[in-house]
Write a structure and sequence with these properties.
By secondary structure, the chain is of the alpha/beta class. The chain has 4 domains: 95 residues, OB fold (Dihydrolipoamide Acetyltransferase, E2P) (Beta Barrel); 167 residues, 3-Layer(bba) Sandwich (FAD/NAD(P)-binding domain), CATH 3.50.50; 110 residues, FAD/NAD(P)-binding domain (3-Layer(bba) Sandwich), CATH 3.50.50; 106 residues, Enolase-like, domain 1 (2-Layer Sandwich), CATH 3.30.390.30. The chain is 26% helix and 23% strand. A 5-stranded parallel β-sheet has the order 12-11-10-16-27, with helices on one face. Strands 18-25-19-20-21 form a 5-stranded parallel β-sheet. A 5-stranded antiparallel β-sheet has the order 29-30-33-32-31, with helices on both faces. The termini are far apart. The chain binds flavin-adenine dinucleotide. Flavin-adenine dinucleotide binds next to helix 3, strand 11, helix 4, helix 5 and helix 10.
Length: 624
């Protein structure tokens, strides 16, 4: 007989029990949730540390519990359950957070895990949402995924070999998704990760921490903007330690949740640096792992400028996300999405930000009309933005980093307190000794794959950033599912019509499908329909009329072939157009869909009405 107690639940004390999942006499499995607790930040299940019979439930709904409170008496359990549940042990494993980069390579690489995180064994909100027993394996995914219509006659593609052992190399959004999906489909999965914390760049040093800090930046900017309609606030007092630990808290919750999800699915996590030794073997820190199929999800690392001095004041995005201080002056090298997102954060916190970009616009690759409102807003807020300008030299001095520039309108040399280098990312395919498996890697470190995500070696797949652009988490996750399902015998391929790109700047910029720039380059026939947000009641009431929603429409079929949105929440709004494109919707379908009023989502419908000439909220010349 053993008492199961509330494990270490981080900083929380006296949290209420909101649900009890077991009663006296119930047989429970190891990891089966016993009760659910709720803090002000997340809900969390307390799982059974072992299998047994519930002899007594010691708590009721709404009881307040803390670490060590007994919740259930379990018969058949071991007497040593004083330690709390497995969830606590599991998290202790992850509490190192040292993020040692065994490669011994560039210490500033993006894929280095954050250090000294305050680990918390709290399953994430995400986890709790999925905390019920995993759905029974879905063996009929063809209706969701696109069936493989590609010509698979390519000689290199052989039949999928027999065998259930799958190794997934890398635990970022691509890797963990592939691993979990494969496990749900009945495969035996080992997930290999060189860092203590799983979740890859996205969760640890990418999407999630950057968005947490951007939220803080947006709060500052909104408070300033409110002066326009009569609400003035004093300058914010910034407690950098608190901001940093809040960001780390968000990250810990998500990565801790992933550990729990892996355990539930019986995915084995092996920590260490993986290298291929043959086409069916990996070596992880001296241990050999044999596999029938492998999915490479090794991600990417920050590209650095050549010949930079070694100096802690020169950082990449990982270094910038650590928020070591708020420098008086910051030079951001690279006016792409990552550079501009980090620029927003530091500017809001008080740095004087200068951006240098070698092409002629911010966010290269995005349509210029979408970038314009962002460029205008940041021009007012930043110290300077130098387009068509390159960094010529960088020297570390006692008083700062001295930088000289090159370009027709290049400014004079200047000294900055800190430099953030955000000049793109390089795929990690060249770090895996993958030639031992016969897998081809190109000179950019990318592994080339077919629509089924198979490499040139038929039982080895590659997904996510390691396969090249676009380097986006949501692309990686979808590819991960395709690879896992393929191995499980499903006839699916990765052939999306729209992969959205989003800059979470202020204003946000989002686009998907064909851009106007691409359409012009390729001579593709298209029509544009633009709805300016000056005519959106919601945008005006937010004090943000500078946005616009643009649809690209096929003149023949009237189907949507691309879209771009700039304005607050553009990243959320673009999802509707992605769905429309996947469903082959035409502009009329969107225009006839009733959107809630007054919302920014209406701007998508209004743009569709512009395309069809049925708009009434603006005057547009009649069509047809
Ligand atoms: C600052 C920043 C912000 C970003 N914001 C966004 C965003 O808002 N939205 C978005 O979609 N994308 C964003 N991205 C990009 C996103 O993070 C990546 O596209 C995504 O993480 C790629 O996922 P992945 O699974 O391919 O690889 P990764 O997330 O890079 O994971 C690869 C994993 O493999 C491990 N690994 C590599 N080699 C080995 C080895 N030999 N042995 C063992 N383990 C190994 C690595 O340690 C890593 O954990 C951002 C990136 C950065 C840097």
């Amino acid at each position: 007989m053993a008492e199961v107690k509330v494990p270490d639940i981080g900083d929380f004390d006296e949290v209420p029990v909101i649900e009890i999942h077991v009663s006296e006499g119930d047989e429970v499995e190891v990891e089966q949730p016993l009760v659910t607790l709720e803090s002000d930040k997340a809900t969390m299940d307390v799982p059974s540390p072992e299998a047994g019979t519930v002899k007594e439930v010691l708590v009721s709904v709404n009881d307040k519990v803390s670490e060590g409170t007994p919740i259930v008496v379990l018969e058949g359990g071991e007497e040593d359950s004083d330690e709390g549940s497995d969830a606590a042990e599991e998290d202790d494993e992850g509490s190192d957070g040292s993020g040692e980069d065994e490669e011994g390579s560039d210490a500033t690489e993006e894929d280095e895990a954050p250090r000294g995180e305050d680990e918390e064994p709290v399953p994430s909100g995400e986890d709790s949402a999925e905390d019920e027993e995993p759905d029974s394996p879905d063996t009929d995914t063809e209706s969701r995924d696109r069936p493989d219509t590609s010509d698979n006659s390519d000689a290199r593609r052989e039949e999928e070999p027999e065998g259930k052992r799958v190794v997934v190399l890398g635990s970022g959004p691509g890797g963990y998704t592939a691993a979990f999906r494969a496990a749900d489909l009945g495969l035996e999965v080992t997930l290999v990760e060189r860092h203590e914390r799983i979740g890859g760049v996205c969760l640890n040093v990418g999407c999630i921490p950057s968005k947490a800090l951007l939220h803080a930046a947006n709060v500052v900017a909104e408070a300033e903007d409110a002066a326009e309609f009569g609400l003035s606030f004093p300058d914010p007092e910034i407690d950098l330690d608190k901001l940093r630990s809040w960001k780390e808290d968000v990250v810990s919750k998500l990565t801790g949740g992933l550990d729990g999800l892996a355990k539930k699915r019986k995915v084995t996590i092996t920590r260490g640096e993986a290298k291929f030794t043959s086409e069916n073997e990996l070596e992880v820190d001296g241990e050999t792992i044999e596999f029938d199929h492998a999915i490479i999800a090794a991600g990417s690392r920050a590209a650095m400028l050549p010949d930079l001095p070694e100096d802690e004041r020169i950082v990449d995005s990982t270094g910038a996300l650590e928020l070591p201080d708020v420098p008086d002056s910051l030079l951001v090298v690279g006016g792409g999405i990552i550079g501009l997102e980090m620029a927003s954060v530091y500017e809001a916190l008080g740095s004087k930000v200068t951006v240098v970009e070698m092409t002629d616009q911010l966010i290269p690759g995005c349509d210029p009309d979408l970038v314009k409102p962002l460029a205008k807003r940041v021009a007012d807020r930043y110290e300077a933005i130098h387009l068509d300008t390159k960094v010529a030299s960088v020297e570390a001095g006692d008083d700062g980093i001295e930088v000289s520039f090159q370009g027709e309108d290049a400014p004079d040399p200047q000294t900055f307190d800190r430099i953030l280098v955000a000049v793109g990312r390089r795929a990690n395919g060249d770090l895996l000794e993958i030639e031992a498996a016969g897998v081809e890697v190109n000179e950019r470190g990318e592994i080339e794959v077919g629509p089924d995500r198979r490499t040139n070696v038929s039982h080895i797949y590659a997904i996510g950033d390691v396969t090249g652009a676009p380097m986006l988490a949501h692309k990686a996750t979808h590819e991960g599912k395709v690879a896992a399902e393929r191995i499980a015998g499903h006839d699916v391929v990765f052939e999306p019509r729209a992969i959205p790109s989003v800059a979470y700047t202020d204003p946000e910029v989002a686009w998907c499908g064909l851009t106007e720039t691409e359409a012009k380059e390729h001579g593709t026939e298209y029509e544009t329909a633009v709805f300016p947000w000056q005519a959106s009641g919601r945008a005006l009431s937010l004090g943000r009329p500078e946005g616009m929603t643009k649809l690209l429409v096929d003149p023949e079929s009237r189907q949507i072939i691309g879209a771009g949105i700039v304005g607050p929440n553009a990243g959320d709004l673009i999802a509707e157009v992605c769905l429309a494109m996947e469903m082959s919707a035409d502009a009329e379908d969107i225009g006839l869909t009733i959107h809630p009023h007054p919302t920014l989502s209406e701007t998508v419908a209004f743009a569709a009405e512009m395309a069809e000439g049925t708009i009434t909220d603006l005057y547009a010349p009649r069509k047809g």
